[in-house]
Amino acid sequence: MKETLIIFIVMLISIESAAQNSLGFSGYWTPGSRQSIMNSFESNPSAYSLIKDWGLTVQYGSEFSADIKSNLYSISISKRIAGHAFSLRYTPGYQKEFLFENNQSFSQADSSIEPLNSRFSYKEIFGFGYSYKISEKISSGFTLRYFTQEFNRDALNLNFPNDTTIFFSVDNYIEKENYYRGDLGINYFITQKVFINLSSINLLTVSEGNISPENEDFILNKEKRALIGISYVSFDLLNLNFLYETNNSFQAGFSGSFNISTKGKLTYGASLFHDEFQSPFFAGIVPGISFSTELFNVTVSGIKYFSYRSNTGSFSEFKNSGIDNIINNQYSFDKLILSFGFTLNTLPERLVEFVNVEVLNDIYPTFTENYLNTPFAEGQVVNLSENPVTVKPSSYIVGINNENVYSPFVLIPPKDTAKVYFYTIIPDTVKREKSGISYADFYLTAVNESPDDKFQKPLLVNGKNAWDGKVINLRYFIKDDYDLSMAASKEILSKYKIILDTLGEELTPFYKSKIIFNNLVKELIYVSDPRASSDYVQFPHETLKLKGGDCDDLTVCCSSLLESVGIQTAIVDYKEENKSGHINILINTGLSPVQAGLITGNDQKYLIRKNSTGSDEVWIPVETTSLTNFETAWDIGSVKFFNEAINSYGIAKGTVEIIDIY
Amino acid sequence: MKIIKRYISLFLISGLFFTGCDKPAVTELVQDEDQYTVETMTEDPSDESKSIDSIGITDNLLRYTSVVTLAGLTTSYYNFKLDESSAAQTLLFDKNQPIYSPEGDLIGYRTITPGIVRFDNKVARLLPYRFKFRREGSIGDTVAGNQYILFSRQRYGDPFEFPYDSFVNFSYTPFNGQNGGSIDIITPNKIDANVSVKGNIRNRTLDVLLEWKNVSNRKIEIILCGNIKRSKSIIPVLRFKTEDDGKFPIPAELLNNLRFALYDNLIILLERKTETKYTFERGDLYVFSKSVHRIDIDIP
Prior knowledge:
The structure holds two protein chains of two kinds. Chain A has twelve helices and 32 strands.
């Protein structure tokens, strides 16, 4: 701020006199205000625009000459495509005409004096602007404007058709010089409150048409200059603006705004300007007031000159000074301008945007339902609007999801940030053999159908056999193969139909378990995890096919076969410090506590715990890696369980955990 | 739908703008640079009946009843001064004695000499008043009476020398014993002009610039004449009336359109002139007092 003040003072000290070129109908307001869509190429050669999609501006006004003249000054259309802003301006009212009698007149035959007249007209026909948003702080652009100049003069022609005849005739000669003017500019928010822009004036001019020396004094000045604008933008009641041309002309003013309703804002401003060819030192003021909403703005602005304005002027002064600016020169009149600006957003306005997204968990495709409750990613989101916004997060994992998966909605206060969590669903059809890097697209959607913001992050999608080491997640391996497990179990049990039919109903689960286990272990051997790690688990059918596995695989396989025929199981997780740990299973015999004696007289070989319906039943621990027979495996499992879970208080300490499969 | 209605409204409003539009106000500039008026002095540039006389009198005298003319004439070839002459002339026309051409056109009036005319107390001589007129396609001349005149050249001739920037006393004494009259005629400053000639007629680049010492803010007349080849008659072609500001470029677009084949050379007359009208019982007396600088130039 201090530096800005110094620059401002230096400029004031260095002010001399110069022609004003950059004055438009709206003066120079803070570029951050909504009035910037009005395409004042005069003060904004870099075509800086805040338009979000389409914008249309119409400027209509009255000129207070001897008569009040009403003019349609300009029609502008703007369009933004991502960081590119385009604007096109048609300016039927940007014109100035001068009428005068030539210094030559002639006598008619009746001795009357016939004057010769001239009409000079200057017009700006159209302009095109382009601006590119390089970053949030910097944008750059250019404008291309088309001007026409027509010098229409009556000229006396001496006709001498033969030796005996001489007479005058009046011919009309028209000379034109049309030209394109191109300018570049850059806009930069030094801080959130200090905005500068640097632009050229008449950087590039390309003319067409020839002008005779007689009219050279009258063509529009094309002197190259620079334009520097500085605004102190408080976004509050008072913004300060200063626009300086390198030939020492300038505009200085203020603007401000405040909300007058939930949807409307009142903006006001005024600019004093200085021009060499206009007096007094401050040649005039450009006040304005605007009401704006998201959809439109209505601006009433005006130019009040501090010197008397007449419909007549001195030809010699005009010849000496010419004009620089068609709409603001020493022959311009006071004006009252009514501007309508309309914005059309076919694109949704961005209400929220990501600050960051962090992936919390890798994806294990087998854990199909896991990500319904456990977020795999977390995002930090900011509400850009001035109203509370309900944001709908969604995600799409390449190779996993077929469509966007929505996560719970989050209400974010105005201008606040919040965390959103991303959950997902993994279809049963996803069976990846190998792990690999994929990408997840994260979306934030507010009130619009299309997302307000998108964020992409890589994440690891594991193969189907990958396991995160959490015992509870083994259930997904157990359940995944139920059909195959059921077929295998039924095939085994069918061979023992006679035995099973003779048993009492209460003992059926126990004996089914025994039969299945004994038949299972006959064909299986204990094999360490081929990947020498705990992150690989075989599906039951793979264990049956491979005829072996480690404790994880055997436990999963055994549990799946039993569960598939209606026998409840649970996994016992023995968490040994500094070791890889061990698991086996508990089998629910379905017997009530009083019926435990039907299978054993040793109360160290079973435990009473609740089943899935909350009833106490007899559960027996079985060591699945003991591939001998059911009784042995039961004995081993019982000893380990009672030693570690009961006698060593493993369950109480948390070193032993029982995880139900259902 | 609501938005569509709004935009339809916008276009309707835009239509109103178009129909309610004027053209931006025009600024009328007042011409405050040197101005001049130009006129053709004849419709027939070869009509020798319109040739100027020896003292550069070019006006059509037909419309006057009584005319007094004082002239101081300087003659130069380019910027080389040849001689100076002075003339004082009085013509009194009898409107009851018109002169007609054979075609029946009024070409003048006979003059009368009913008294004595003096300039600065010097009695003017009576000499025949002769003028030219067009007769069936050729030029004829006739004597229409006498004129009062004093004429000197290089101080030879009559005892009259045009006093620049001064005045000359004109007096008239009728023979019939009635009261005469006397008036002082103011004379203008002498014109001492230089000419600069550039370019040529072949390329239509002839450029003639006249410069002189400006001593008044009045008008000056510049008469461009052609010296007819066969007759050596000097025919005035264009007359410019401009500010007596010391400088006048003859407009090149007019100069280069002259039919130069008609002329041996060009003559430029610069005239400071006063014109005064006196009303008497007998009629109006017009008094012209002029300072003339004649510059002859070749046609390059």
